[in-house]
Amino acid sequence: AAPRGGAGDAVGPRPPLGPRGPRGGxxxxxxxxxxxxxxxxxxxxxTPGKPSAVLLFKPGIVVAVTLAGFSGMVLARRGLPDPGxxxxxxxxxxxxxxxxxxxxxVFDAGMDEKMPRLSRRAAALRxxxxxxxxxxxxAAIAASLLLSALWINGxxxxxxxxxxxxxxxxx
Length: 171
Known about the structure:
The chain is mainly α. Helix content is 60%, strand content 0%.
């Protein structure tokens, strides 16, 4: 029992773990039980059919980068930017972030193949072809840089280029 009551009293005494944990489980969860294919609690079933190309663009990261970029616009202007500039800048951010994420997926394909949690992303890349994904990614980045240079300013375009190259090559 825990001194002066507490959580220890609520669950009662625990058996000693010993060298291999309770019931010989070894204490650690084997990786095979952590993958969706294992069907353990908290896992989601695999989606049947063709893997989604959206996975190649790492949507969670792209949304976070775009939100951070919009926050930077608000801070730089000390208020909301005009709607036209904001929409164009957000479109450029989305294109550059998505393109660099997809290009990073192409560069990291060998590592991604070895990780069970990335199996759907690797399958989507195989399905679409590395060359096709790389071409779309480079086109998205180039369009973003061109639009930002023409319609926003050169500094924004240079910053986008540095961020896209940094993410695609270094991450």
